[in-house]
Amino acid sequence: MDILGYSSYGWLPSALYLVLLLVLSFKAKSGVESRFSTAMVQVAIFVILVIHGVQLHDSVFTPEGFVFGFAQDLSLIAWVGLAFYWFQSWFLPISSLRWMALMFALICAFLPNLFPGVLISPKAVSDPWFKGHFVVATVAVGLLSLAAMHAMLMSVQDRALHRQLAIIPNGRLAHWLEDLPPLMTMESLLFNLLYVGFALLSLTVFSGLLFSQTLFGKPLVFDHKTIFALVSWILFAGLLLARWRVGLRGRAAIRWVLSAYTALLLAYVGSRFVLEVILQRV
After folding, report:
1. Residue 158 φ then ψ, to 5°
2. How far apart are CA 92 and CA 82, in angstroms?
3. Residue 62: what are its φ and ψ, rounded to 5°?
4. CB of 98 closer than 8 Å to CB of 24
5. Is 109 within 8 Å of 76 (Cβ atoms)?
6. From CA 43, how far away is CA 49, in angstroms rounded?
7. Distance of CA 229 to the CA centre of its chain
8. What is the pTM of this model?
9. What would the DSSP string read from start to end of the chain?
10. Are 148 and 85 in contact (CB under 8 A)?
11. Residue 3 has what pLDDT?
């Protein structure tokens, strides 16, 4: 696909994210956003998401085959996270999370230009089972990544409320934290992300375990990726079980989320990074 006459436009999504962040920075200095300007920002995010999504599809599912790497993985994770934020922002007062989601998307959208990935399989592009598994896995990791960022933000908010974080009164950080939804609302959104993300992660992990030969063309191997994925699934399952049985919340829940996500990141992004960048292998 050509955009603006270029056959390769991997730079375009990150450039558009940067422009949008600059516009938002200017608007923040000028005062409170009107409903019209908020709607225009939402439209702009949607348009950039479409361009980013098409660019990702074309760079991963190529005529030569399935091309992938840790940079594409991070870019997809950021895309899913921003898309979920965009959808939720129509119903919840979470506009203060916009900067984090856009900045993460800006950085991750640019990474594939530096690390273009490798040709993993020339046949996987035409396999509907593999495509389905790939889409579900990407959405799962994307939602759980957003949940991890959300948990980190909740940690900062909690520490600020308990005066354990030095904040300049009337400073930009102070105003930003004041604009965040209450911790109860933040916690509710966090577990909404976790419920959906865990359901999709379960489908991803167990479809991979049961249909490894069909999906990947090789029998199941308990390598570090499989082990870390199972560890992450067990940790997320334990977190949700503790939430259901004893109402786990607060700092304990945040630490549990971040531990489970670290294992997930090591399974999906970390394994590709080690192979491509450190070991220089496919």
Report:
1. -65, -45
2. 15
3. -95, 165
4. yes
5. no
6. 10
7. 16
8. 0.77
9. --BTTBS--THHHHHHHHHHHHHHHHHHHH-SPPHHHHHHHHHHHHHHHHHHHHHHHHHHEETTEEEE-HHHHHHHHHHHHHHHHHHHTTTSS-GGGHHHHHHHHHHHHHHHHH---EEEESSGGG-HHHHHHHHHHHHHHHHHHHHHHHHHHHHHHHHHHTT-S---TTSHHHHHHHHSPPHHHHHHHHHHHHHHHHHHHHHHHHHHHHSHHHHHSS-----HHHHHHHHHHHHHHHHHHHHHHH---HHHHHHHHHHHHHHHHIIIIIHHHIIIIIS---
10. no
11. 39
Cβ-contact 193, 146 below 8 angstroms: yes
Nearest alpha-carbon partner for 180 in 116, 97, 113, 98: 97
**CA distance from start to end of the chain:** 27
CA 240 to chain centroid: 20
Q: Which amino acid is at 219?
A: P
Between 43 and 72, name the one with better pLDDT.
43
Q: What mean pLDDT value characterizes the chain?
A: 80
d(CA 233, CA 255): 15
Residue type at position 10: G
Looking at this protein, which amino acid is placed at residue 147?
A
pLDDT digits 0-9 by tens, 203-221: 988 887 776 666 566 666 6
pLDDT, residue 7, reads 42
